[in-house]
Design brief:
Elements lengths: L3 E6 L3 H12 L4 E7 L2 H11 L3 E4 L8 H11 L5 E5 L4 H10 L3 E4 L4 H12 L7 H9 L8 H11 L4 H8 L3 H15 L4 H11 L6
Parallel strand pairs: 1-2, 1-3, 3-4, 4-5
Helix pairs in contact: 2-3, 4-6, 7-8, 7-9, 8-9
InterPro entries: CheY-like_superfamily (IPR011006), NreC/VraR/RcsB-like_REC (IPR058245), Sig_transdc_resp-reg_C-effctor (IPR016032), Sig_transdc_resp-reg_receiver (IPR001789), Tscrpt_reg_LuxR_C (IPR000792), WalR-like (IPR039420)
Protein name: DNA-binding response regulator
Pfam family, one: Response_reg
C-alpha cells in the first residue's frame, strides 16, 4: 500500500514537531509538508495535493475555519482532520459544517489521530464520543447574526451597554435591543449566564 500523504498545518512549533514525530513513526503515513499559518497551508495544499490535511483551528492569517472553506471550495474531495484545543459544540459544528471529516482535541492519543487519518483517507468520518456528545448538545436553532456575535464578544469582556455602543459605533438603544435578542436566543437569564454559555459552547473565545 502507498503511504497516506499528510499535510500538517499548526502554528505552534513544538506541537507541530510532536505531531510530526508521532505520525512519521507510522509506516503507512508520510508527512509531505508542514505549515505554520493558514496562508502557507493553503499554498502548500495547492502544490502538494495531500491525501489528508491535519489542521488546527486557531491559525494566523487565515483561521482554521476559513481555511477549511477555502480548501473545500477548490478541492471538493479534500480530506480534512481538525485537531484543536477548542471543544465547544459550536466549534465542532462550524468545522463539520464547513467540511471537516474528523474532529479531535489535542488531548487525543497518537493512536486515535492515526485512526482518524486512516478513516478519513478511506472517505469515512471520524468523531470520538466527545465530539458526538457536543454535537448532540447543540441547539440547531441558535444562529447569531454577525452584529450579535460582536455584542456577545463585548459582553464576555465585561463591557457595559455604553461601552459596547462606543466600541461598535452604534447607539446604546440599539445595543439594548441586541442584548435582549441575545439573551432570548440563548435562553439566558442575564449577561453572566450568557457569558458562561458562550464560553462553554465555543461561541466566543477569550484570547
Amino acid at each position: 500500500m502507498k503511504p497516506i500523504r499528510v499535510l500538517l498545518i499548526e502554528d505552534h512549533f513544538l506541537a507541530r514537531m510532536a505531531l510530526h514525530s508521532v505520525l512519521s513513526a507510522h509506516s503507512q503515513i508520510q508527512i509531505v509538508g508542514e505549515a505554520c499559518d493558514g496562508e502557507a497551508g493553503l499554498a502548500m495544499y495547492r502544490s502538494l495535493l495531500p491525501d489528508v490535511v491535519v489542521l488546527d483551528l486557531r491559525l494566523p492569517l487565515i483561521s482554521g475555519f476559513d481555511l477549511i472553506v477555502k480548501i473545500k471550495e477548490e478541492f471538493r474531495s479534500a480530506h480534512i482532520v481538525v485537531l484543536s484545543n477548542y471543544s465547544g459544540s459550536e466549534d465542532i459544528y462550524r468545522a463539520v459544517r464547513r467540511g471537516a471529516m474528523a474532529y479531535l482535541t489535542k488531548d487525543a492519543s497518537g493512536e486515535e489521530l492515526i485512526n482518524a487519518i486512516e478513516s478519513v483517507h478511506r472517505g469515512l468520518r471520524y468523531f470520538p464520543n466527545m465530539a458526538l456528545d457536543r454535537l448532540a448538545e447543540r441547539t440547531p436553532a441558535l444562529e447569531l447574526t454577525p452584529r450579535e456575535t460582536e455584542v456577545l464578544s463585548c459582553i464576555t469582556r465585561g463591557y457595559s451597554n455604553r461601552e459596547i455602543a462606543e466600541e461598535l459605533g452604534i447607539a446604546e438603544k440599539t445595543v439594548r435591543i441586541h442584548v435582549s435578542s441575545l439573551l432570548d436566543k440563548m435562553g439566558a437569564r442575564d449577561r453572566t449566564q450568557a457569558t458562561i454559555y458562550a464560553l462553554q459552547r465555543g461561541l466566543i473565545h477569550l484570547e
